[in-house]
Amino acid sequence: MARTLDFGSKQLGKRPVRKLDPPVRAALRLGAYQLAFTDQADHAVVDDTVELVRAARLERAVPFTNAVMRKLATGLQGLVASLPEGPVKHSYPDWIADIWTRDFGREVALELMRAQNEPPDLEVRSAEPVGEPTDVPAPTSSRASTIGAHAADEPRVTVGRARRRLRGRRPRARPLCGAGREGDDARGRGEPAVEVHPGRAQAMAKNVGPNVRVVIADARELGESGFDRALVDAPCSGLGVLSRRPDLRWRARPLPELQLELLQAAARAPKPGGTIVYSVCTLNADENEAIVRRLGARALSLGAEWPQYAHPTRPEFLLTLSAPRPERVDSSSPD
Q: In Å, how far are 4, 83, 87, 144, 238 from 310, measured between CA atoms?
């Protein structure tokens, strides 16, 4: 809620937060959050915030911090409550709010803002059925609230955070191109999974099966071809996973040119008649439909296989958005 808190501090403190020393800014945000969204005693919050600034050896900023916190203690809750629905109230950059409003309409955009400020549901994946099944396309996916505490200790169970109200397969915002080619397994080569970052490649190698070989390389420079199918799990702005990575909204940026280059490289990998799957974990048409359209390849319908994720107007895409859908959608997220 950084933007909301900074707005309140600026309005009541009469000084832009961005001009403050980082320790002072951080202390004010912590104090403002407690005043606005918790039941902590006001005087205790004010005292703690002042002591944080003093501990940072910024004695000159102590009087200012004390004055601002006292103003926040009397006026911040009312100010936050009176904010109109929008990116300031829900703490999003304007560009994200603008994209969601353009692609989904104002009401769905606001619902996305609210939903992605909530903690994601805890889900587990296992090689064997546990708990209560979900509708997530995966071998076995269950809600953690329905299984025993011991389940996470099982070697074949993976526990993770799922996207709240935006449920689909576990997202990975990184360059990845996996492909399958007839005969690779028989020759002991395995299907290649390409990752440009060495650390991520190492982590990937620990989680893939024996039929997959991890290659550290730029997928745009992959020279292999003749595959039956290719998967591009492209880096993106991550607007579909902000509940799991709330700080990403302040660092993310769309990557349409890189995405198109990765998809063009993948298009050279399959043999004639092969299949390419393009997947990103963002909710931005510029990184979804627009990329597929620019590639110019024929898109196959996926809605019949997963009708619960069928795109309302574009059957070649899956839309893993379980919030109420708009009547008219010009763009959305294939996942």
A: 35, 35, 28, 26, 21
Cβ pair 240, 333 in contact under 8 A: yes
> Structural domain boundaries of the chain?
2-83, 90-119+169-335, 122-161
| pTM of the model as a whole | 0.75
The 10s digit of each residue's pLDDT in 151-186 is: 445 444 444 443 333 333 332 323 334 444 444 443
Q: How far is CA 167 from the centre of its chain?
A: 11
Could you please state the CATH topology (level 3) that the domain comprising 90-119+169-335 is classified under.
Rossmann fold (3.40.50)
* Average of per-residue pLDDT values in the chain: 78
